[in-house]
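Q: I'm writing up a methods section and want to include an example of the input and output format. Could you take the sequence below and give the corresponding predicted structure tokens, formatted cleanly so I can copy it straight into the document?
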Amino acid sequence: MDFAGDHFSLFDLPATFRIDSALLDRRYIELQSQVHPDRFASAGDSARRLSEQWATRVNEAYQTLRKPLPRARYLLHLAQHDIGSENNTAMPADFLVEQMEWREAVAEARAAGNHHELEHLHHRLQRALASRHEEIAALLDDQHDLEQAADRVRRLMFEEKLLSEIDDAIAAGEE
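A: Here is the clean output for your methods example:
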């Protein structure tokens, strides 16, 4: 294990978008068992602080690698390729129209209290996200097309925000 390297090195995984989630989970548990502050409860102050720092580092790396969007952003960061989310907000018109249609459908279902339609929209968007993840995997892992990958990551940011809004609407309807 490489504590000083990047997140992938820390977990002894290849720096790719496609990762073995079960292996990541196992390595996370292994690392946490090695660096968890409880193991250093009777150690000196410096050893306890160091263990807390390493436990925090392991947690942050795990949280980044376990979800597709942060993992893609991190891979682009490692490649020193800025996704430009702050200054590059231009999106193709067809994508923006699609986003507007999604948001209208969510707003209508929410206003009507149509829990079934919200669930349907959730599942449709989940399938679209899975397709987007595959697209990003191909761009990053196979084609090494950082520019197109960054564009798809920016789109994924919109779509994940929309999924969160759908989930909030579903949760509000269940209260």
